[in-house]
Amino acid sequence: MDLLNKNKEKPRILLVEDNPGDIRLTQEALKESQLDIHLDVVSDGEQAIDFLNKRNKYAESTRPHIILLDLNLPKKNGIEVLKEIKVQDSLKSIPVIVLTTSDADHDISKAYSWHANCYILKPVDFDDFAKVIQLIELYWFNTVQLAHA
Amino acid sequence: MKNITFYSSLFDFLDGYSEAVLIGDKSSKIVYVNKAFRKLCLLKSDELPSGTVSHFFKLKVNIKGEDGEGNLQWESNLSRTDGSTVWIKVSTSPFISETGDTLTVYTLTTNTTLEQLQSLLKESEKRFETLADASPVMIWMTDKNNLTYYFNKSWLDFRGSTFEEEMGIGWLQRVRPDDMGAFRKISEFLERFEHYSCEYRLKDHNGVYKSILEIGTPRFLPDKTFAGYMGSCLDISEMKSAQQELAGYTKELKRSNEELENFAYVASHDMQEPLRMIASYTQLIQKGIETNRTEGLTEFMKYVTDGVTRMQSLISDLLQFSRVNSKGSAFAEVNMQELLSVVTTNISEKIKETGAVVKIADGMPTLQADRTQLMRLFQNLMENAIKFRSPERKPIIEISVEDTQGFFVFHVKDNGIGIEKKFYNRIFVIFQRLHTRDEYEGTGIGLAVCKKIVERHGGDIRVESVANEGSEFIFSLRKQHSNNGFTE
Lengths: 149, 488
Description:
Chain A is an alpha/beta fold. Chain A has helices spanning about 5, 20-30, 45-50, 80-85, 105-115, 125-140, and strands at about 10-15, 40, 65-70, 95-100, 120. Chain B is built from twelve helices and 19 strands.
Protein backbone atom coordinates (compact mmCIF):
# COMPACT_ATOMS: atom_id res chain seq x y z
CA MET A 1 0.00 0.00 0.00
CA ASP A 2 1.07 3.50 -0.64
CA LEU A 3 2.31 6.37 1.40
CA LEU A 4 -1.08 7.93 1.89
CA ASN A 5 -2.47 4.94 3.65
CA LYS A 6 0.69 4.43 5.68
CA ASN A 7 0.35 7.94 6.96
CA LYS A 8 -3.36 7.50 7.43
CA GLU A 9 -3.90 10.65 5.45
CA LYS A 10 -7.35 10.80 3.89
CA PRO A 11 -7.15 11.02 0.07
CA ARG A 12 -8.41 14.39 -1.15
CA ILE A 13 -9.77 15.16 -4.61
CA LEU A 14 -10.58 18.61 -5.92
CA LEU A 15 -13.32 18.44 -8.53
CA VAL A 16 -13.49 21.46 -10.86
CA GLU A 17 -16.88 21.11 -12.50
CA ASP A 18 -19.72 23.54 -13.22
CA ASN A 19 -22.45 21.06 -14.04
CA PRO A 20 -24.38 20.10 -10.85
CA GLY A 21 -25.46 16.87 -12.54
CA ASP A 22 -21.85 15.83 -13.06
CA ILE A 23 -20.93 16.80 -9.50
CA ARG A 24 -23.70 14.58 -8.17
CA LEU A 25 -22.66 11.74 -10.49
CA THR A 26 -19.09 11.94 -9.21
CA GLN A 27 -20.34 11.83 -5.64
CA GLU A 28 -22.49 8.78 -6.48
CA ALA A 29 -19.57 7.06 -8.14
CA LEU A 30 -17.30 7.74 -5.15
CA LYS A 31 -19.93 6.23 -2.87
CA GLU A 32 -19.50 2.95 -4.68
CA SER A 33 -15.75 2.89 -4.05
CA GLN A 34 -13.93 1.29 -1.15
CA LEU A 35 -11.78 4.25 -0.29
CA ASP A 36 -12.90 6.98 2.04
CA ILE A 37 -12.22 9.97 -0.13
CA HIS A 38 -12.70 13.62 0.71
CA LEU A 39 -14.19 15.48 -2.25
CA ASP A 40 -13.97 19.28 -2.59
CA VAL A 41 -15.95 20.89 -5.39
CA VAL A 42 -15.49 24.26 -7.10
CA SER A 43 -17.64 25.25 -10.04
CA ASP A 44 -15.54 27.62 -12.10
CA GLY A 45 -11.93 28.25 -13.12
CA GLU A 46 -11.36 31.25 -10.91
CA GLN A 47 -12.63 29.43 -7.85
CA ALA A 48 -10.28 26.55 -8.66
CA ILE A 49 -7.26 28.87 -8.64
CA ASP A 50 -8.47 30.59 -5.46
CA PHE A 51 -8.98 27.20 -3.78
CA LEU A 52 -5.49 25.97 -4.65
CA ASN A 53 -3.88 29.24 -3.55
CA LYS A 54 -6.02 29.45 -0.41
CA ARG A 55 -7.37 32.81 -1.43
CA ASN A 56 -10.59 34.68 -0.69
CA LYS A 57 -13.34 32.37 0.56
CA TYR A 58 -10.98 29.38 0.25
CA ALA A 59 -8.44 30.62 2.79
CA GLU A 60 -9.04 27.50 4.88
CA SER A 61 -8.84 25.00 2.03
CA THR A 62 -6.62 21.92 2.15
CA ARG A 63 -4.31 21.03 -0.73
CA PRO A 64 -5.79 18.17 -2.80
CA HIS A 65 -3.82 15.06 -3.79
CA ILE A 66 -5.26 15.06 -7.26
CA ILE A 67 -7.43 17.39 -9.33
CA LEU A 68 -10.29 16.33 -11.62
CA LEU A 69 -10.64 19.12 -14.15
CA ASP A 70 -13.46 19.75 -16.60
CA LEU A 71 -12.47 21.82 -19.66
CA ASN A 72 -15.72 23.63 -20.37
CA LEU A 73 -15.93 26.06 -17.47
CA PRO A 74 -17.33 29.55 -16.99
CA LYS A 75 -15.00 32.55 -16.49
CA LYS A 76 -11.69 30.71 -16.78
CA ASN A 77 -11.75 27.60 -18.94
CA GLY A 78 -10.08 24.32 -18.01
CA ILE A 79 -6.97 24.83 -20.15
CA GLU A 80 -6.36 28.22 -18.51
CA VAL A 81 -6.71 26.63 -15.07
CA LEU A 82 -4.32 23.85 -16.11
CA LYS A 83 -1.75 26.41 -17.33
CA GLU A 84 -1.88 28.31 -14.05
CA ILE A 85 -1.41 25.13 -12.02
CA LYS A 86 1.48 23.89 -14.12
CA VAL A 87 3.45 27.14 -14.16
CA GLN A 88 3.18 27.56 -10.40
CA ASP A 89 6.02 25.79 -8.58
CA SER A 90 3.96 25.15 -5.46
CA LEU A 91 1.10 23.52 -7.44
CA LYS A 92 2.61 21.81 -10.46
CA SER A 93 3.33 18.54 -8.66
CA ILE A 94 -0.38 17.92 -8.11
CA PRO A 95 -1.60 15.45 -10.78
CA VAL A 96 -4.31 16.96 -12.95
CA ILE A 97 -6.76 14.53 -14.52
CA VAL A 98 -8.72 16.19 -17.30
CA LEU A 99 -12.23 14.75 -17.28
CA THR A 100 -14.28 16.17 -20.11
CA THR A 101 -16.75 15.47 -22.88
CA SER A 102 -14.49 16.99 -25.50
CA ASP A 103 -12.79 14.49 -27.78
CA ALA A 104 -11.40 17.26 -30.02
CA ASP A 105 -7.78 16.67 -30.99
CA HIS A 106 -6.84 20.26 -30.27
CA ASP A 107 -8.19 20.00 -26.71
CA ILE A 108 -6.36 16.73 -26.08
CA SER A 109 -3.03 17.93 -27.47
CA LYS A 110 -3.35 21.31 -25.73
CA ALA A 111 -4.07 19.59 -22.40
CA TYR A 112 -1.04 17.33 -22.70
CA SER A 113 1.22 20.10 -23.89
CA TRP A 114 0.25 22.00 -20.74
CA HIS A 115 1.30 18.92 -18.76
CA ALA A 116 -2.07 17.35 -17.96
CA ASN A 117 -1.28 14.03 -16.22
CA CYS A 118 -3.99 12.24 -18.14
CA TYR A 119 -7.00 12.98 -20.30
CA ILE A 120 -10.21 11.02 -19.82
CA LEU A 121 -13.52 11.28 -21.71
CA LYS A 122 -16.64 11.35 -19.55
CA PRO A 123 -18.56 8.17 -20.40
CA VAL A 124 -22.22 8.62 -21.29
CA ASP A 125 -23.24 5.58 -19.24
CA PHE A 126 -23.28 5.84 -15.43
CA ASP A 127 -21.72 2.41 -14.84
CA ASP A 128 -18.89 3.33 -17.14
CA PHE A 129 -18.55 6.66 -15.38
CA ALA A 130 -18.36 4.93 -11.99
CA LYS A 131 -15.75 2.56 -13.40
CA VAL A 132 -13.64 5.49 -14.57
CA ILE A 133 -13.80 7.13 -11.13
CA GLN A 134 -12.77 3.83 -9.48
CA LEU A 135 -9.89 3.41 -11.91
CA ILE A 136 -8.70 6.91 -11.08
CA GLU A 137 -8.75 6.08 -7.37
CA LEU A 138 -7.05 2.75 -7.89
CA TYR A 139 -4.31 4.27 -9.99
CA TRP A 140 -3.57 7.51 -8.15
CA PHE A 141 -4.17 6.35 -4.59
CA ASN A 142 -3.29 2.65 -4.65
CA THR A 143 -0.70 2.28 -7.40
CA VAL A 144 1.51 5.31 -7.80
CA GLN A 145 3.57 7.30 -5.33
CA LEU A 146 2.54 10.90 -5.02
CA ALA A 147 4.89 13.73 -4.18
CA HIS A 148 4.60 15.46 -0.85
CA ALA A 149 3.54 19.07 -0.93
CA MET B 1 33.87 61.37 -125.86
CA LYS B 2 37.34 61.23 -124.43
CA ASN B 3 40.23 60.13 -126.49
CA ILE B 4 42.23 57.91 -124.28
CA THR B 5 45.16 55.95 -125.52
CA PHE B 6 44.53 52.28 -124.85
CA TYR B 7 47.60 51.00 -123.07
CA SER B 8 47.97 47.31 -122.59
CA SER B 9 49.17 48.03 -119.10
CA LEU B 10 45.76 49.57 -118.32
CA PHE B 11 44.30 46.19 -117.33
CA ASP B 12 47.16 45.63 -114.90
CA PHE B 13 46.42 49.01 -113.43
CA LEU B 14 42.69 48.32 -113.18
CA ASP B 15 43.34 44.99 -111.42
CA GLY B 16 44.91 46.93 -108.62
CA TYR B 17 42.00 49.35 -108.47
CA SER B 18 39.74 48.97 -105.43
CA GLU B 19 36.46 49.70 -107.21
CA ALA B 20 34.90 47.06 -109.41
CA VAL B 21 35.37 47.86 -113.08
CA LEU B 22 33.86 46.24 -116.17
CA ILE B 23 34.49 47.16 -119.79
CA GLY B 24 32.07 46.43 -122.58
CA ASP B 25 32.40 46.95 -126.32
CA LYS B 26 30.06 48.69 -128.72
CA SER B 27 27.60 45.80 -128.64
CA SER B 28 27.80 45.65 -124.83
CA LYS B 29 29.81 42.43 -124.94
CA ILE B 30 32.06 42.15 -121.93
CA VAL B 31 35.70 42.52 -122.85
CA TYR B 32 37.26 42.99 -119.44
CA VAL B 33 36.49 42.72 -115.69
CA ASN B 34 38.98 43.66 -112.97
CA LYS B 35 39.85 41.71 -109.81
CA ALA B 36 37.56 43.81 -107.62
CA PHE B 37 34.66 43.00 -109.96
CA ARG B 38 35.44 39.26 -109.85
CA LYS B 39 35.45 39.46 -106.07
CA LEU B 40 32.19 41.39 -105.96
CA CYS B 41 30.38 39.02 -108.30
CA LEU B 42 32.12 35.92 -106.91
CA LEU B 43 33.53 35.08 -110.36
CA LYS B 44 36.12 32.35 -110.71
CA SER B 45 39.81 33.00 -111.62
CA ASP B 46 40.65 34.55 -114.96
CA GLU B 47 37.72 33.49 -117.08
CA LEU B 48 35.80 36.28 -118.62
CA PRO B 49 32.05 36.20 -118.14
CA SER B 50 30.31 35.44 -121.40
CA GLY B 51 27.37 37.46 -122.66
CA THR B 52 26.55 41.10 -122.41
CA VAL B 53 26.79 43.76 -119.75
CA SER B 54 23.00 43.74 -119.31
CA HIS B 55 23.34 40.26 -117.86
CA PHE B 56 24.68 41.94 -114.71
CA PHE B 57 22.45 45.00 -114.67
CA LYS B 58 18.92 43.77 -115.21
CA LEU B 59 17.44 46.72 -113.38
CA LYS B 60 18.35 50.35 -113.75
CA VAL B 61 16.93 52.97 -111.39
CA ASN B 62 17.73 56.59 -110.58
CA ILE B 63 19.32 57.05 -113.97
CA LYS B 64 21.05 60.37 -114.11
CA GLY B 65 21.53 62.08 -117.44
CA GLU B 66 24.35 62.52 -119.82
CA ASP B 67 26.78 65.30 -119.03
CA GLY B 68 27.39 65.91 -122.68
CA GLU B 69 30.30 63.51 -122.77
CA GLY B 70 28.20 60.34 -122.63
CA ASN B 71 28.62 59.72 -118.90
CA LEU B 72 25.71 57.99 -117.22
CA GLN B 73 24.94 57.05 -113.62
CA TRP B 74 22.36 54.67 -112.31
CA GLU B 75 21.67 52.28 -109.49
CA SER B 76 21.06 48.62 -109.85
CA ASN B 77 21.02 45.35 -108.03
CA LEU B 78 23.95 43.39 -109.33
CA SER B 79 23.33 39.67 -109.76
CA ARG B 80 26.16 37.62 -108.32
CA THR B 81 27.02 34.11 -109.47
CA ASP B 82 25.62 32.57 -106.29
CA GLY B 83 22.21 34.00 -107.08
CA SER B 84 22.34 36.81 -104.53
CA THR B 85 22.21 40.47 -105.46
CA VAL B 86 24.00 43.52 -104.13
CA TRP B 87 22.90 47.13 -104.44
CA ILE B 88 25.38 49.19 -106.43
CA LYS B 89 25.85 52.54 -108.07
CA VAL B 90 27.20 52.45 -111.58
CA SER B 91 29.07 55.19 -113.50
CA THR B 92 29.83 54.77 -117.17
CA SER B 93 32.41 56.54 -119.23
CA PRO B 94 32.77 55.73 -122.92
CA PHE B 95 36.12 55.96 -124.68
CA ILE B 96 37.72 55.00 -127.97
CA SER B 97 40.62 52.55 -127.88
CA GLU B 98 43.85 52.72 -129.80
CA THR B 99 42.32 50.42 -132.33
CA GLY B 100 39.40 52.75 -132.75
CA ASP B 101 36.83 50.57 -130.97
CA THR B 102 34.23 52.33 -128.90
CA LEU B 103 34.31 50.87 -125.42
CA THR B 104 32.44 51.68 -122.22
CA VAL B 105 33.94 51.56 -118.73
CA TYR B 106 31.48 50.70 -115.94
CA THR B 107 32.66 51.62 -112.47
CA LEU B 108 30.66 50.01 -109.64
CA THR B 109 30.47 51.42 -106.12
CA THR B 110 28.77 49.42 -103.40
CA ASN B 111 28.48 52.27 -100.92
CA THR B 112 24.82 52.91 -100.19
CA THR B 113 23.89 56.52 -100.63
CA LEU B 114 22.87 58.74 -97.69
CA GLU B 115 19.42 59.24 -99.20
CA GLN B 116 19.05 55.50 -99.42
CA LEU B 117 20.05 55.08 -95.80
CA GLN B 118 17.62 57.77 -94.77
CA SER B 119 14.83 56.22 -96.72
CA LEU B 120 15.60 52.78 -95.34
CA LEU B 121 15.63 54.22 -91.84
CA LYS B 122 12.36 56.04 -92.43
CA GLU B 123 10.75 52.91 -93.69
CA SER B 124 11.96 50.95 -90.68
CA GLU B 125 10.70 53.60 -88.32
CA LYS B 126 7.37 53.70 -90.06
CA ARG B 127 7.13 49.95 -89.78
CA PHE B 128 7.85 50.11 -86.05
CA GLU B 129 5.37 52.92 -85.49
CA THR B 130 2.62 51.15 -87.42
CA LEU B 131 3.24 48.03 -85.42
CA ALA B 132 3.47 49.88 -82.11
CA ASP B 133 0.33 51.92 -82.76
CA ALA B 134 -1.63 48.85 -83.79
CA SER B 135 -0.71 47.15 -80.50
CA PRO B 136 -3.24 47.22 -77.64
CA VAL B 137 -0.27 47.30 -75.26
CA MET B 138 1.20 50.66 -74.23
CA ILE B 139 4.73 51.03 -75.56
CA TRP B 140 7.37 53.61 -74.79
CA MET B 141 11.06 54.29 -75.33
CA THR B 142 13.60 56.26 -73.38
CA ASP B 143 16.91 57.78 -74.32
CA LYS B 144 20.17 57.01 -72.59
CA ASN B 145 19.27 59.44 -69.79
CA ASN B 146 16.07 57.47 -69.26
CA LEU B 147 13.89 60.32 -70.46
CA THR B 148 10.94 59.11 -72.47
CA TYR B 149 10.87 60.30 -76.08
CA TYR B 150 8.36 57.91 -77.56
CA PHE B 151 4.84 56.80 -76.59
CA ASN B 152 2.60 54.74 -78.83
CA LYS B 153 -1.04 55.48 -79.56
CA SER B 154 -2.32 53.09 -76.85
CA TRP B 155 -0.41 55.04 -74.22
CA LEU B 156 -1.66 58.43 -75.39
CA ASP B 157 -5.22 57.05 -75.67
CA PHE B 158 -5.05 55.56 -72.19
CA ARG B 159 -3.76 58.79 -70.73
CA GLY B 160 -5.93 61.00 -72.95
CA SER B 161 -3.01 63.39 -73.35
CA THR B 162 -0.58 64.62 -75.95
CA PHE B 163 2.94 63.48 -76.57
CA GLU B 164 4.25 66.86 -75.37
CA GLU B 165 2.54 66.48 -72.00
CA GLU B 166 3.90 62.99 -71.52
CA MET B 167 7.47 63.25 -72.78
CA GLY B 168 10.54 63.28 -70.57
CA ILE B 169 9.24 62.69 -67.08
CA GLY B 170 5.84 64.34 -67.69
CA TRP B 171 4.01 61.02 -67.44
CA LEU B 172 5.63 60.35 -64.06
CA GLN B 173 3.48 63.08 -62.48
CA ARG B 174 0.44 60.88 -63.13
CA VAL B 175 1.75 57.92 -61.16
CA ARG B 176 0.08 57.48 -57.79
CA PRO B 177 2.43 59.09 -55.26
CA ASP B 178 2.44 56.11 -52.88
CA ASP B 179 3.53 53.86 -55.75
CA MET B 180 6.70 55.84 -56.45
CA GLY B 181 8.51 53.24 -54.33
CA ALA B 182 8.20 50.84 -57.27
CA PHE B 183 10.40 53.17 -59.32
CA ARG B 184 13.00 53.50 -56.64
CA LYS B 185 13.28 49.72 -56.73
CA ILE B 186 13.75 49.53 -60.49
CA SER B 187 16.44 52.21 -60.45
CA GLU B 188 18.86 49.43 -59.41
CA PHE B 189 17.99 47.56 -62.60
CA LEU B 190 18.34 50.73 -64.65
CA GLU B 191 21.83 51.32 -63.29
CA ARG B 192 22.90 47.84 -64.32
CA PHE B 193 21.05 48.05 -67.70
CA GLU B 194 18.96 45.02 -66.81
CA HIS B 195 15.55 43.78 -67.81
CA TYR B 196 12.88 44.56 -65.18
CA SER B 197 9.16 44.37 -64.44
CA CYS B 198 7.15 46.36 -61.93
CA GLU B 199 3.63 47.35 -60.96
CA TYR B 200 2.23 50.78 -60.18
CA ARG B 201 -0.98 52.78 -60.56
CA LEU B 202 -1.31 55.39 -63.28
CA LYS B 203 -4.11 57.89 -63.88
CA ASP B 204 -6.11 57.13 -67.01
CA HIS B 205 -7.95 59.66 -69.22
CA ASN B 206 -10.81 59.79 -66.66
CA GLY B 207 -8.42 60.57 -63.82
CA VAL B 208 -8.94 57.11 -62.35
CA TYR B 209 -5.88 55.21 -61.11
CA LYS B 210 -5.40 51.93 -62.94
CA SER B 211 -2.99 49.14 -62.05
CA ILE B 212 -0.20 48.90 -64.60
CA LEU B 213 2.23 46.06 -65.21
CA GLU B 214 5.38 47.44 -66.82
CA ILE B 215 8.17 45.46 -68.47
CA GLY B 216 11.34 47.28 -69.52
CA THR B 217 14.21 46.03 -71.69
CA PRO B 218 17.47 47.90 -72.26
CA ARG B 219 18.48 48.84 -75.81
CA PHE B 220 22.07 48.85 -77.03
CA LEU B 221 23.70 50.31 -80.12
CA PRO B 222 25.74 47.99 -82.42
CA ASP B 223 28.88 49.16 -80.60
CA LYS B 224 27.27 47.91 -77.36
CA THR B 225 26.77 51.34 -75.84
CA PHE B 226 23.54 51.80 -73.89
CA ALA B 227 20.87 53.65 -75.87
CA GLY B 228 17.96 53.70 -73.42
CA TYR B 229 15.05 51.46 -72.48
CA MET B 230 12.09 50.20 -74.39
CA GLY B 231 9.09 48.93 -72.55
CA SER B 232 5.49 47.89 -72.56
CA CYS B 233 2.72 48.57 -70.08
CA LEU B 234 -0.46 46.59 -69.58
CA ASP B 235 -3.58 47.79 -67.71
CA ILE B 236 -4.12 44.90 -65.28
CA SER B 237 -6.79 46.62 -63.14
CA GLU B 238 -9.58 44.25 -64.11
CA MET B 239 -7.38 41.23 -63.55
CA LYS B 240 -6.29 42.67 -60.22
CA SER B 241 -9.79 43.43 -58.99
CA ALA B 242 -10.95 39.99 -60.10
CA GLN B 243 -8.06 38.52 -58.14
CA GLN B 244 -8.86 40.60 -55.11
CA GLU B 245 -12.52 39.69 -55.31
CA LEU B 246 -11.60 36.04 -55.52
CA ALA B 247 -9.21 36.36 -52.59
CA GLY B 248 -11.99 38.08 -50.62
CA TYR B 249 -14.45 35.29 -51.38
CA THR B 250 -11.86 32.66 -50.51
CA LYS B 251 -11.13 34.34 -47.20
CA GLU B 252 -14.81 34.69 -46.38
CA LEU B 253 -15.42 31.07 -47.34
CA LYS B 254 -12.53 29.93 -45.18
CA ARG B 255 -13.76 32.00 -42.25
CA SER B 256 -17.29 30.73 -42.64
CA ASN B 257 -16.05 27.13 -42.89
CA GLU B 258 -13.98 27.52 -39.78
CA GLU B 259 -16.89 29.11 -37.96
CA LEU B 260 -19.14 26.30 -39.06
CA GLU B 261 -16.66 23.65 -37.99
CA ASN B 262 -16.15 25.30 -34.65
CA PHE B 263 -19.87 25.79 -34.26
CA ALA B 264 -20.65 22.15 -35.05
CA TYR B 265 -18.02 21.01 -32.57
CA VAL B 266 -19.16 23.26 -29.74
CA ALA B 267 -22.81 22.63 -30.47
CA SER B 268 -22.45 18.87 -30.40
CA HIS B 269 -20.39 19.14 -27.24
CA ASP B 270 -22.92 21.31 -25.47
CA MET B 271 -25.79 19.14 -26.61
CA GLN B 272 -24.15 15.96 -25.40
CA GLU B 273 -24.02 17.23 -21.83
CA PRO B 274 -27.78 17.17 -21.17
CA LEU B 275 -28.04 13.84 -23.00
CA ARG B 276 -25.35 12.38 -20.79
CA MET B 277 -27.23 13.64 -17.72
CA ILE B 278 -30.47 12.10 -18.92
CA ALA B 279 -28.80 8.77 -19.71
CA SER B 280 -26.78 8.56 -16.46
CA TYR B 281 -29.59 9.58 -14.12
CA THR B 282 -32.21 7.31 -15.71
CA GLN B 283 -29.69 4.54 -15.08
CA LEU B 284 -29.33 5.59 -11.43
CA ILE B 285 -33.12 5.71 -11.09
CA GLN B 286 -33.37 2.25 -12.59
CA LYS B 287 -30.77 0.97 -10.11
CA GLY B 288 -32.70 2.54 -7.24
CA ILE B 289 -35.93 0.91 -8.36
CA GLU B 290 -34.20 -2.47 -8.78
CA THR B 291 -32.70 -2.29 -5.29
CA ASN B 292 -35.79 -0.78 -3.72
CA ARG B 293 -33.76 2.23 -2.70
CA THR B 294 -35.91 5.32 -3.00
CA GLU B 295 -33.33 7.65 -1.49
CA GLY B 296 -32.24 10.31 -4.00
CA LEU B 297 -34.75 9.26 -6.65
CA THR B 298 -36.57 12.62 -6.67
CA GLU B 299 -33.27 14.42 -7.02
CA PHE B 300 -32.19 12.10 -9.86
CA MET B 301 -35.54 12.72 -11.55
CA LYS B 302 -34.85 16.44 -11.34
CA TYR B 303 -31.57 15.99 -13.26
CA VAL B 304 -33.45 14.08 -15.96
CA THR B 305 -36.09 16.78 -16.41
CA ASP B 306 -33.37 19.48 -16.21
CA GLY B 307 -31.52 17.71 -19.00
CA VAL B 308 -34.65 17.61 -21.12
CA THR B 309 -35.43 21.30 -20.52
CA ARG B 310 -31.86 22.24 -21.25
CA MET B 311 -31.87 20.23 -24.44
CA GLN B 312 -35.06 21.99 -25.53
CA SER B 313 -33.72 25.46 -24.90
CA LEU B 314 -30.40 24.60 -26.58
CA ILE B 315 -32.20 23.41 -29.68
CA SER B 316 -34.48 26.45 -29.84
CA ASP B 317 -31.60 28.90 -29.19
CA LEU B 318 -29.43 27.18 -31.75
CA LEU B 319 -32.20 27.39 -34.30
CA GLN B 320 -32.56 31.08 -33.53
CA PHE B 321 -28.83 31.59 -33.97
CA SER B 322 -28.59 29.71 -37.24
CA ARG B 323 -31.64 31.45 -38.66
CA VAL B 324 -30.32 35.01 -38.19
CA ASN B 325 -28.76 34.84 -41.64
CA SER B 326 -30.62 31.99 -43.33
CA LYS B 327 -34.18 32.85 -42.36
CA GLY B 328 -33.97 36.62 -42.04
CA SER B 329 -36.70 38.75 -43.59
CA ALA B 330 -36.09 41.49 -46.13
CA PHE B 331 -35.44 44.90 -44.57
CA ALA B 332 -38.42 47.20 -44.23
CA GLU B 333 -39.31 50.42 -42.40
CA VAL B 334 -39.34 49.79 -38.66
CA ASN B 335 -40.68 52.32 -36.19
CA MET B 336 -38.45 51.84 -33.14
CA GLN B 337 -40.83 53.57 -30.72
CA GLU B 338 -43.56 51.10 -31.61
CA LEU B 339 -41.19 48.12 -31.68
CA LEU B 340 -39.84 48.85 -28.19
CA SER B 341 -43.31 49.09 -26.72
CA VAL B 342 -44.14 45.65 -28.19
CA VAL B 343 -40.95 44.18 -26.70
CA THR B 344 -41.77 45.73 -23.31
CA THR B 345 -45.21 44.12 -23.46
CA ASN B 346 -43.66 40.76 -24.37
CA ILE B 347 -41.54 40.74 -21.23
CA SER B 348 -44.12 42.47 -19.01
CA GLU B 349 -44.37 39.35 -16.80
CA LYS B 350 -40.66 39.50 -15.91
CA ILE B 351 -40.83 43.28 -15.49
CA LYS B 352 -43.70 42.89 -13.05
CA GLU B 353 -42.01 40.05 -11.11
CA THR B 354 -38.82 42.01 -10.53
CA GLY B 355 -40.29 45.49 -10.32
CA ALA B 356 -38.08 46.59 -13.21
CA VAL B 357 -38.37 50.06 -14.71
CA VAL B 358 -37.93 50.52 -18.49
CA LYS B 359 -37.08 54.05 -19.66
CA ILE B 360 -37.19 54.68 -23.39
CA ALA B 361 -35.70 58.00 -24.49
CA ASP B 362 -37.50 60.32 -26.89
CA GLY B 363 -36.58 60.56 -30.52
CA MET B 364 -36.61 56.85 -31.42
CA PRO B 365 -36.07 56.74 -35.20
CA THR B 366 -37.66 54.80 -37.99
CA LEU B 367 -35.12 52.71 -39.84
CA GLN B 368 -34.62 50.02 -42.46
CA ALA B 369 -34.32 46.70 -40.67
CA ASP B 370 -35.57 43.17 -40.10
CA ARG B 371 -38.34 43.83 -37.60
CA THR B 372 -38.47 40.35 -36.04
CA GLN B 373 -34.72 40.34 -35.54
CA LEU B 374 -34.66 43.79 -33.91
CA MET B 375 -37.36 42.58 -31.53
CA ARG B 376 -35.21 39.55 -30.69
CA LEU B 377 -32.16 41.80 -30.23
CA PHE B 378 -33.86 44.19 -27.79
CA GLN B 379 -35.69 41.41 -26.00
CA ASN B 380 -32.46 39.44 -25.41
CA LEU B 381 -30.68 42.53 -24.09
CA MET B 382 -33.58 43.58 -21.84
CA GLU B 383 -34.06 40.05 -20.51
CA ASN B 384 -30.35 39.89 -19.74
CA ALA B 385 -30.60 43.22 -17.90
CA ILE B 386 -33.32 41.72 -15.72
CA LYS B 387 -31.62 38.33 -15.34
CA PHE B 388 -28.30 39.83 -14.22
CA ARG B 389 -29.89 42.37 -11.90
CA SER B 390 -28.26 43.36 -8.66
CA PRO B 391 -29.78 41.71 -5.59
CA GLU B 392 -29.53 45.08 -3.88
CA ARG B 393 -31.78 47.16 -6.14
CA LYS B 394 -34.67 47.09 -8.55
CA PRO B 395 -33.59 46.83 -12.19
CA ILE B 396 -33.65 50.01 -14.29
CA ILE B 397 -33.25 49.64 -18.06
CA GLU B 398 -32.57 52.79 -20.07
CA ILE B 399 -32.74 52.75 -23.86
CA SER B 400 -31.47 55.71 -25.87
CA VAL B 401 -30.25 56.42 -29.39
CA GLU B 402 -27.67 58.65 -31.10
CA ASP B 403 -27.99 59.77 -34.70
CA THR B 404 -24.49 59.53 -36.21
CA GLN B 405 -23.30 59.60 -39.78
CA GLY B 406 -24.60 56.53 -41.55
CA PHE B 407 -25.63 54.78 -38.35
CA PHE B 408 -28.08 54.89 -35.47
CA VAL B 409 -26.22 54.00 -32.29
CA PHE B 410 -28.39 52.45 -29.58
CA HIS B 411 -27.59 52.19 -25.88
CA VAL B 412 -29.21 49.64 -23.58
CA LYS B 413 -28.08 50.47 -20.08
CA ASP B 414 -28.83 48.62 -16.83
CA ASN B 415 -27.95 48.87 -13.14
CA GLY B 416 -27.19 45.16 -12.72
CA ILE B 417 -24.18 43.19 -11.51
CA GLY B 418 -21.96 44.32 -14.38
CA ILE B 419 -19.28 42.47 -16.30
CA GLU B 420 -15.55 42.46 -15.68
CA LYS B 421 -13.54 44.10 -18.44
CA LYS B 422 -11.67 40.92 -19.35
CA PHE B 423 -14.96 39.31 -20.35
CA TYR B 424 -16.12 42.15 -22.65
CA ASN B 425 -15.37 40.16 -25.79
CA ARG B 426 -16.01 36.65 -24.56
CA ILE B 427 -19.67 37.25 -23.77
CA PHE B 428 -20.49 37.62 -27.48
CA VAL B 429 -18.95 34.26 -28.39
CA ILE B 430 -21.42 31.42 -28.71
CA PHE B 431 -21.64 29.00 -25.74
CA GLN B 432 -19.37 31.17 -23.60
CA ARG B 433 -20.82 31.62 -20.16
CA LEU B 434 -19.56 33.61 -17.22
CA HIS B 435 -21.72 31.99 -14.60
CA THR B 436 -22.29 28.49 -13.36
CA ARG B 437 -25.66 26.98 -14.00
CA ASP B 438 -26.86 27.21 -10.45
CA GLU B 439 -26.11 30.95 -10.46
CA TYR B 440 -27.78 31.82 -13.78
CA GLU B 441 -29.51 29.48 -16.19
CA GLY B 442 -28.64 29.97 -19.85
CA THR B 443 -27.25 28.41 -22.98
CA GLY B 444 -24.59 31.00 -23.81
CA ILE B 445 -26.25 31.75 -27.13
CA GLY B 446 -28.31 34.91 -26.46
CA LEU B 447 -25.60 37.54 -26.93
CA ALA B 448 -24.10 35.61 -29.86
CA VAL B 449 -27.53 35.95 -31.50
CA CYS B 450 -27.52 39.71 -30.72
CA LYS B 451 -24.08 40.10 -32.29
CA LYS B 452 -25.16 38.22 -35.40
CA ILE B 453 -28.30 40.34 -35.78
CA VAL B 454 -26.34 43.59 -35.40
CA GLU B 455 -23.78 42.41 -37.93
CA ARG B 456 -26.51 41.53 -40.42
CA HIS B 457 -27.63 45.15 -40.04
CA GLY B 458 -24.14 46.38 -40.93
CA GLY B 459 -23.16 47.42 -37.41
CA ASP B 460 -21.25 46.17 -34.41
CA ILE B 461 -21.93 45.64 -30.74
CA ARG B 462 -19.83 46.10 -27.61
CA VAL B 463 -20.29 46.41 -23.89
CA GLU B 464 -19.06 48.82 -21.27
CA SER B 465 -19.55 48.08 -17.62
CA VAL B 466 -18.64 48.86 -14.06
CA ALA B 467 -18.76 45.80 -11.82
CA ASN B 468 -21.67 45.99 -9.36
CA GLU B 469 -22.98 49.20 -10.96
CA GLY B 470 -24.30 48.02 -14.27
CA SER B 471 -23.63 47.33 -17.92
CA GLU B 472 -24.24 49.32 -21.08
CA PHE B 473 -24.62 47.55 -24.40
CA ILE B 474 -23.84 49.83 -27.34
CA PHE B 475 -24.60 48.81 -30.89
CA SER B 476 -24.87 50.49 -34.27
CA LEU B 477 -27.40 49.81 -37.02
CA ARG B 478 -26.74 51.07 -40.53
CA LYS B 479 -29.29 53.56 -41.87
CA GLN B 480 -29.05 52.57 -45.53
CA HIS B 481 -28.74 49.06 -46.88
CA SER B 482 -27.70 48.29 -50.41
CA ASN B 483 -28.53 44.60 -50.32
CA ASN B 484 -31.88 44.52 -48.52
CA GLY B 485 -30.40 42.37 -45.78
CA PHE B 486 -29.30 39.54 -48.02
CA THR B 487 -25.79 38.87 -49.15
CA GLU B 488 -25.56 38.14 -52.85
